[in-house]
Design goal:
cytoplasm; 3-stranded antiparallel β-sheet; ribosome binding; Eukaryotic translation initiation factor 3 subunit K; single chain; Arc Repressor Mutant, subunit A
């Protein structure tokens, strides 16, 4: 059998830790703050995402307010918007002081979040166009919001009129034609002619837009179980 080699102490100290390990081992150590800030920028450049690391950084900013970078905080909130329908934006906002939230860029992000949560996509895209310097700093933002808009539509519609889809994802004309071609080829969408010259997009069937597909067996209570309760209540 091989012999286990133990590294000298000086070598052990040079072993790099991942950000996730730093967060897990000592999330309240202010010494890891620069690593977490760099990790936010890495998430932006590599189009990855770590809610736990970002929440940890926001908590450290609460203890070290003089070290807070509003640019980093804005990027965290934009990434959280991109994670919708997950409630990440609200979780992050809870850790940001109110005085910081009152800054113009954060008020804008809060308004954008409200528009997304209420499905007001036209207002969202109009507001986002006024604040391109905030949202365009994070690659993939537009595509993530388009995916969220499609998710919302799929919860409501079996067939979506072309103008409704165009407004929700902020794509029109030939660009929308190419987008639809891709969705038909790769995602199971179907194109139909609606009334007049309108076009309808048939979305894939799911338990949300076709309630009859929903499986209730696991969540439902068998009738015989309910029947046993009645004598007890009486």
């Amino acid at each position: 059998m091989g012999r286990e080699v133990v590294q000298p102490p000086q070598q052990q100290q040079t072993v790099p830790y991942t950000v996730e390990q730093l967060v897990a081992v000592n999330p309240y150590n202010p010494d890891i703050l620069p690593d977490l800030e760099n990790y936010v920028n890495e998430q932006v450049s590599s189009q990855t995402y770590s809610l736990d690391a970002n929440l940890c950084l926001l908590r450290l900013y609460q203890f070290e307010p003089e070290r807070m970078s509003t640019q980093i905080v804005a990027r965290i909130l934009v990434k959280a918007l991109m994670a919708m329908p997950a409630p990440d934006f609200s979780l992050c906002l809870f850790l940001i002081p109110e005085r910081v939230q009152m800054e113009e860029q954060f008020k804008t992000l809060i308004v954008l979040s409200h528009y997304l949560e209420t499905g007001r996509f036209r207002q969202f895209w109009d507001e986002a166009a006024k604040s391109r310097h905030i949202v365009e700093a994070v690659p993939g933002f537009e595509q993530a919001i388009q995916a969220y808009a499609i998710h919302v539509l799929s919860l409501t519609y079996q067939k979506v009129p072309r103008p409704v889809l165009a407004e929700a994802i902020n794509i029109e004309g030939l660009s929308l034609d190419k987008f639809l071609e891709h969705q038909v080829a790769n995602c199971g969408w179907i194109l139909e002619k609606g009334h007049g010259r309108g076009q309808l997009i048939v979305l894939p069937r799911s338990e949300f837009n076709h309630p009859e597909l929903k499986k209730n067996n696991a969540d439902g209570i068998p009738f015989d179980h309910i029947a046993r309760i009645f004598p007890i209540l009486g």
